[in-house]
Write a structure and sequence with these properties.
single chain, 816 residues, 4-stranded antiparallel beta sheet, MMPL family transporter, transmembrane helix, transmembrane, CarboxyPept-like_regulatory, Acrflvin-R
């Protein structure tokens, strides 16, 4: 990793040209080829899929998308000449448009059924020659404009259908742009530097742009659903900014501690960059876990999301060091550069708030754990009423023409009209079947089309809406009782039946999927941290985070708490495929934070074998970066409410809630509190298992840094010596009154004082730890505001030395 980082840093112009060439090359190819996204949710070996296959065989000419023009009069009926004279010419004009296959008018000889009983609402069906995602947007806009031009006072005209939905979506990129702007604000506040703020954004945009264009090219060779690029943007933008944030933060700290920019960049990539590689690989593996579901629809989602994550990691490990090389010292703000020049290098230190919170968690672990757990359980309660299904145009905002058309059809022809079922009979007489269906509870209308190639399609309109549980029960009655008792071989299809089957299959396979990704996470953390308890805790936390985030999702989208206020439309069931996608993303992101937090704790544990200190220091030093990264992801994910896509909005809100709960409650409260309560058992691993596990270093030893003329082996003591003994000095710094001294600078020198080996700053509780390269005698100095600088000789054996320091005005005394 260090070699790659150094090469990219020194050959920065070459790396930049390669990335720009890749971005524009793939972009040009993607624009020229266009997109060919699939939008099929069918599943093999399901009843609805068999019905669809039979319909496609019998009626291939009806394979294009069918949309609806609906109109309503305030007075009189739609049969009035004043209405017909406006609507009929518009329908005729639409029928002559290139790309429109057929227009079925209620004014035709067989169109009486397309007029409501009270005569005030009617509809016409417009069948395009292509499926919705292939219909040119200009054609759809012409259809909408032509139909709505027929409106007048007292005559309302609305349009519904998949193709119509596409033209009312907001411009592509709005959600991404808002997310980027919000992330820029957070980064600027965190870094205080314009150039440092731009680095993560440039890296994320380069990776995301390349990934989206590559996804559009892949749509020509494999089935990629239309929602896949949106989800790719969602995860790619979030992880791309976060991964770059981790590396830039480490790089800036290195410079502030006296390292040259090139060495700081190499060290950052060789430490945080390795963690990014591990985290990115974990996210991709979690996404690949969706393949366990054996749903072809999800294969394209795996491709799009994994591709953007891989490119985000690649950009963070190649493009970012090149950009760091271009900026040099300008990665720091002007104030930081002036302070560095005037006061010299500073030691790495946790923020006062982070240190105080960490100390509070250590003092009251039970209270913190119980409070956090109760909060998560309350948020998870709505998940008990989770119902999977499908959103449709009835969930759109009230102001949209698709929602208006949906409501008009429900008003004129019944709520079930928007989700008719197709009972497809392959052979034999169907009169008995039609009669049986007509007398079935929950059926409003039944109409059988003339048979074609021995196949009969029976249109069944339920009395309830497509999203109603009663409609699901009707499908089950038809399949389990009515059709078998009629003696006819038939299958129940239609969009409503397809999504019911999808929800059923998802529900059946979801436990296997959850077991697979939880097991995977357990094994990865087991190898990384050489512990059984840490991965078990992480698995439990992931389940709690998932339950709470889905609880928030159910409350907002299924119960309707604030959907209209947020501009999300009407409440309804949770989209069937969303749990699988969200759990994959949530698992990957949670692993990122868990690795970042626990790796620092593990490092302290290896040094001191003091669990309380390991947890306290690890939380104090990582919580700020974790919270900053989480805040960026929350901004990016929440912005997808503006995508105009209900599934995108669900995924964005759900993931934003998951990240917020994971970072602000689980990783900074519940996890450290639980680890304090578990004590040394956190790091227990059976000896036999220890010997059999492969070794996987998430972060290697930090490279030597030149600090104040010190040359090498400065931080080698951050790992045990060859005999396995920890060689550190740690303890507390206290004032003459016995109170903790925060911000005291402790420096470990060689015995003669000529070589500075390590330097740290005491935390809010006065604790400190300095690293020692090997057993022997050293000089330990301490300075603090209001105290004179003093030094004492210390002798370190093969184990860690506990050395508490009392600072007085004129002397430095060891308490023990």
């Amino acid at each position: 990793m260090a070699t790659l980082a150094r090469w990219c840093y020194r050959h920065r112009l070459v790396v930049l040209l390669l990335w720009v060439g890749a971005l524009f090359g793939v972009g040009f190819a993607g624009s020229a080829a266009g997109t060919d996204y699939a939008n099929s949710f069918s599943l093999p070996n399901t009843d609805s899929t068999r019905a669809y296959d039979l319909m496609e065989k019998a009626f291939p000419q009806s394979s294009g998308d069918t949309d609806t023009v609906v109109w309503k009069v305030d007075d009189g009926t739609v049969r009035d000449e004043s209405v017909r004279s406006r609507i009929e010419p518009a329908l005729e004009e639409i029928g002559r448009m290139e790309g429109v296959g057929e227009v079925s008018s209620p004014y035709a000889a067989q169109g009486a059924a397309q007029i409501s009983e009270n005569g005030r609402i009617a509809y016409a069906q417009v069948t395009f020659t292509e499926q919705a995602n292939s219909v040119p947007k200009e054609l759809v806009e012409d259809v909408v404009d032509t139909a709505q031009d027929a409106e007048r006072a007292g005559l309302q005209v609305e349009l519904g259908g998949q193709a119509i939905t596409r033209v009312q979506e907001p411009p592509t990129g709005i959600a991404e742009l808002v997310g980027i702007v919000a992330a820029a604000v957070v980064l600027f506040i965190a870094f205080g530097s314009l150039f440092a703020m731009l680095l993560p954004l440039v890296v994320a945009i380069a990776a995301l742009g390349t990934g989206l264009m590559a996804t559009s090219l892949l749509s020509h060779v494999t089935d990629v659903p239309e929602v896949a690029p949106l989800l790719g943007s969602l995860i790619g933008l979030g992880v791309g900014i976060d991964y770059a944030l981790f590396i830039v933060t480490r790089h800036r700290k290195g410079i502030l501690r006296g390292m040259k920019p090139e060495e700081a960049a190499v060290t950052a990539l060789n430490t945080s960059g390795r963690a990014v590689l591990f985290a990115g690989g974990t996210v991709c593996i979690a996404l690949a876990g969706m393949l366990v579901m054996n749903m072809r629809f999800l294969d394209g989602v795996v491709i799009a999301t994994s591709l953007t994550v891989v490119l985000s990691v690649l950009a963070a490990t190649t493009l970012l060091p090149a950009l760091l090389g271009l900026l040099g010292m300008r990665v720091l703000s002007r104030r930081q550069r002036r302070r560095l020049a005037a006061a010299g290098p500073e030691s790495e230190e946790a923020s006062g708030l982070a240190a105080r919170w960490s100390a509070f968690v250590e003092r009251r672990p039970r209270s913190v754990a119980v409070t956090a757990l109760i909060a998560m359980m309350i948020l998870a309660l709505p998940v008990l009423s989770l119902r999977l299904g499908a959103t449709d145009q009835g969930n759109h905002q009230e102001s949209t023409t698709t929602r208006q058309a949906y409501d008009l059809l429900a008003e004129g022809f019944g709520p079930g009209f928007n989700g008719p079922l197709q009972v497809v009979a392959e052979r034999g007489e169907t009169d008995a079947l039609v009669s049986a269906i007509r007398s079935t509870e929950g059926v409003a209308q039944v109409a059988a089309a003339p048979p074609a190639q021995g196949i009969t399609v029976i249109q069944v309109v339920p009395t309830t809406s497509p999203q109603s549980e009663q409609t699901d029960q009707l499908i089950d009655r038809l399949r389990d009782d009515v059709i078998p008792e009629s003696g006819t071989e038939a299958h129940v299809g239609g969009v409503t039946a397809v999504f019911k089957d999808f929800a059923s299959v998802t529900g059946d396979r979801l436990p296997y999927f959850i077991a697979a990704i939880i097991t995977l996470g357990f094994l990865l953390l087991l190898v990384a941290f050489r512990s059984l308890v840490v991965p078990l805790t992480a698995a439990l936390m992931n389940l709690i985070a998932a339950a709470a985030s889905f609880g928030v999702l159910v409350a907002i989208f299924q119960w309707g708490w604030g959907t209209e206020l947020l501009g999300l439309g009407k409440e309804g069931p949770i989209t069937a495929f969303l749990p699988v996608i969200m759990l994959s993303l949530l698992f990957g992101l949670s692993m990122d934070y868990q690795v970042f937090l626990v790796s620092r704790m593990h490092e302290e544990w290896v040094h001191t074998k003091d669990n309380a200190r390991a947890v306290r220091v690890g939380l104090a030093e990582t919580s700020r970066v974790i919270n900053c990264a989480a805040l960026i992801m929350i901004c990016v994910f929440s912005a997808f409410v503006l995508s105009g896509d209900m599934e995108g909005a669900m995924a964005g809100i759900g993931l934003a809630a998951a990240v917020a709960l994971d970072a602000f409650i689980l990783r900074t409260a519940l996890v450290p509190a639980a680890m304090h309560l578990l004590g040394n058992s956190n790091w227990w691993l059976p000896e036999g298992l220890e010997k059999r596990l492969p070794h996987l270093a998430v972060e290697p030893r930090e490279e030597a840094a030149e600090v104040g003329g010190a040359a090498e082996n400065v931080l080698h003591a951050r790992v045990p010596d060859d005999k396995g003994h920890s060689t550190v000095v740690h303890g507390f710094v206290r004032g003459a009154d016995g109170g903790p001294v925060e911000g005291a600078v402790l420096t470990l020198h060689s015995k003669g004082g000529g070589l500075r080996l390590d330097q740290v700053t005491s935390l809010a509780d006065g604790s400190y730890i300095v690293s020692v390269p090997a057993p022997g005698s050293y000089l330990l100095s301490a300075t603090a505001p209001g105290h004179a600088a003093r030094a004492r000789s210390v002798t370190v054996g093969e184990g860690p030395l506990v050395y508490d320091v009392e600072l007085a005005e004129d002397e430095m005394d060891a308490v023990n």
